[in-house]
Amino acid sequence: MKILLVDDEPAIATALAPVLLSQGHAITNADSAAGALQAAEQGDFELVLLDLGLPDADGIEIIGKLKQLTEATIIILSARHLEAEKVRALDEGADDYVNKPFGIEELLARIRAAARRRENAATPQKFVSDQLSVDFTRHEVRLMGEEIKLSPKEFALLEVLCRHAGQVVTHRKLLIAGWSDPHADGQYLRSYVALLRQKLEEDASEPQLILTEPGVGYRLAVLPL
Questions:
Q1: What residues contact residue 99 under an 8 Å CB cut-off, 6+ apart?
Q2: pLDDT tens across 143-185, in order?
Q3: Please, what sign has the CA dihedral across residues 22, 23, 25, 30?
Q4: Which of 52, 116, 163, 210 is most solvent-facing, going by the fewest CB within 10 Å?
Q5: Using alpha carbons only, how large is the chain's radius of gyration in Å?
Q6: Are the C-beta atoms of residues 198 and 209 closer than 8 Å to each other?
Q7: Reduced to 3 states, what is the DSSP secondary structure of residue 74?
């Protein structure tokens, strides 16, 4: 992938660049918001790794501008651990969020997931993993080959999670998908996620498929084949 790494800490670029290059990626560095926007305008990137603590602007403020300049996936790399910061970044259009300090293997796994999502973007009418198959057109769900019946709202929530498999999907996005209202009662969402888990998880009390991101949203753990 062609990756734009936006971080003003030289140590981050020094540590990440050799690892990413060894994985076959092409890397361009930017150490400011202005540099990131200029690079995005000039380059055809597939992935942006974006730090939020930039010297000339808050990284969250340029997510929307980056989205206008590039179709690249945006993964936030930040030392900010507040849930509100994560939610804001994701609602602004970021695709994923990795806390600093992070393990390089975790980051590489998120990058591989982003690459797979881009590869599967050409056929968005169906989600298929080793466990789960969801046909968005037919509203058909199969788990390990067995058909699972879902209500319309359950299916709407699962579809959003599948279309963003491996990524955090915020409560706001899920409320819009299920109730067309970002301010709907969050208890509705929790109740329907619980119903989904009862139908899809081997043990709903210890979910392995639909994971909770506390205070932020939910993540579908399986990735498309």
A1: 78, 79, 81
A2: 999 999 999 999 999 999 999 999 999 999 999 999 988 888 9
A3: negative
A4: 116
A5: 18
A6: no
A7: strand
Tokens of 194: 């619980």
CA dihedral sign, ordered 105, 107, 112, 117 = positive
Taken in order of first residue, the domains within the chain and their CATH numbers are: 2-120 (3.40.50.2300), 126-220 (1.10.10.10)
DSSP letter assigned to residue 93: T
Q: What's the CA gap between 167 and 2, in Å, rounded?
A: 20
Average pLDDT estimate for 181-190: 91
Cα–Cα distance between 207 and 202 in angstroms, integer? 8
Average pLDDT of the segment spanning 15-28: 91
CA distance linking residue 146 with residue 225, whole number of Å? 18
- pLDDT tens-digit profile of 102-132? 889 989 998 988 888 787 665 568 899 999 9
CA angle 125, 131, 135 (to 5 degrees): 20
User: Residue 134 has which token pair?
Assistant: 């969801």
Determine the 3-state secondary structure of 216 from DSSP: coil
